[in-house]
User: What shape does this take?
Amino acid sequence: MPSYTVTVATGSQWFAGTDDYIYITLVGTERCSERTLLDKALYNDFERGAVDSYDVRVGEDLGEIVMVKIEKNKYWVQDDWYCRYITVKTPTGDYVEFPCFRWLVDDKEVVLRDGRGHLPQNDKTSLVKQHRQAELEMRRKTYRWKEWQPGFPLSIDAGRHKDLPRDIQFDSEKGVDFVLNYSKAIENLCVNQFMHMFQSSWSEFADFEKIFVRIKNTISEYVMQHWREDFMFGYQFLNGCNPVMIQKCTKLPDKFPVTNEMVSVSLERELTLEQEIEAGNIYIVDYEVLDGISANCTDPCTLQYLAAPICLLYKNDQNKILPIAIQLGQTPGEINPIFLPTDGQYDWLLAKIWVRSADFQYHQTITHLLRTHLLTEMFAIAMYRQLPAVHPVYKLLIPHIRFTIAINTKAREQLICECGIFDKANATGGGGHVQLVQKAMKTLTFRSLCFPDMIKAHGVDKKEELPTYFYRDDGYMVWEATKSFVSDVVCIYYNSDDTVKEDEEIQAFVKDVCSFGMQDFDHCGFPKSVKSREELIEYLTIIVFTASSQHAAVNFGQYDWCSWIPNAPSTMRKPPPNQKGLANVNLIIESLPDRGRSSWHLGAVWALSQYQENELYLGMYPDEHFIEKPVKAAMEKFRKELAEITSTIKRRNEGKKLPYYNMSPDKIPNSVAV
Assistant: This one.
């Protein structure tokens, strides 16, 4: 009588084990086994982290094992179980691997295909075709699109984290409770004494140290010491936590009438402003998208204000980027003066603070929330709806969307919802952040997600012109390594462009992203199909890069750059100045966030900058969705390339007062999970 050895691995996360009854049915090309209870006498089966083996005896050989069916039935109370994988050893000594990596909840059954990646056109038997179709039909019922706010990318249809499918929930919901984490951060930072002191201004700049001194690190302390200096202001456009705004200025916009006379004292090459522009030494940052956005009015005791500034930047002889002109609104005129470094020191300082505050709003809502969190969730939902677990692209993407839908759902539940944490301290709280996303969506394009294209479109792609733009340099290296890895995997399964065109599932995935996720917005330029391997490689590289490297670059530097409140005010409590000569220390202190809002802000940037306890960094794939040796070789090659990039960045950072490591692969988590 033939015997098959079945090995079952249970997950090691909290509550992964089960006391429920587990049954297995082996499905072969010739016949199926009996439904067999997996149970050993006097043994506690399926404990957390366990790997258990069982014999399944059959009357006749089953042929090639193509699927296994696992069923979980209640023993006493419902007890969820996380199955990592199942391996079947056949009577001839062959091993067949069946990756699972999912939860079995209630009285649920899961049917697994073997671990090789299978394109839909390569499935020939009706058995595997039906299984593929049934899995996708079930997924589409489970992962439904929903419009959280008009004009947003569509998100998951779930009001709360606990309403999500178990497979995409966090292992422990407590670990991602924003209210808990922010309060804990505020307590750990010893700023809870100021937490409820809304409306109470600080007395002087040095007072901000009272909530800062507890957890200094090299960059945040350097920021505290140098934040008033023009070089520090300019440097952040290159390597701060929002390094995506700076653009080459090829012509001054009419709405920003800076003259040569205004700025000639700041120019160092004996050239006019027009000549400096022609020489490629002038850059511009424009926060036009903030124009007309409603400021936070959730607290009737504190008026809050927003501005939509424009800032002209100059690359000097030492290749430092320095501000030379700032206009705090989009419409020039007497009540919207152009502030200059030659103005009174407090006029110039206050103008720079307004730019920093606008940059904070843009960063939080557009660069971070929209362009990493919400877009990655959109790709993730489409993946679950259109790609079955055996599809190689599903296997490629799954580590890079881990916990993203969960963190976003939690954010909609606690952070960016009405009366959420965002309302407490941010000038765009109370609905401004929603308007901002809606406005930004009108100009968001697919090409802008392609890192090299975005850098080139901004005119900042030449290293010799901006030699200290480390975000660009490191981003190029990580983009190329990621694209090379994606290319290796794609070419293992797709041997021609026709193979891509014939893959109905990948075409449905790309179409779902455009037609549902992006709601077919005309301007967005998201493709509705992919026609070649090259197009598919770029598309998947954009997803992986956005979810990992781009998110890391704009998330984990938040404490470094935003913990010194005057350098990144989350709100302003006085309107932007409409004439020169009014600013003094008192006006600036009265404009900056009060003690309560400062404390909430500090708790937020601290909590958001923390890595997860068991973080999986780029290239770490402990869940073996792929079993094929060529893919494992591609992963190993990817890890080696990433290690070389990490070493290169480390060498470059040695001895630097402001090291840049936000794009270092050893600090890039695989997915958006915080």
About this structure: The first strand starts at residue 3 and ends at 10.
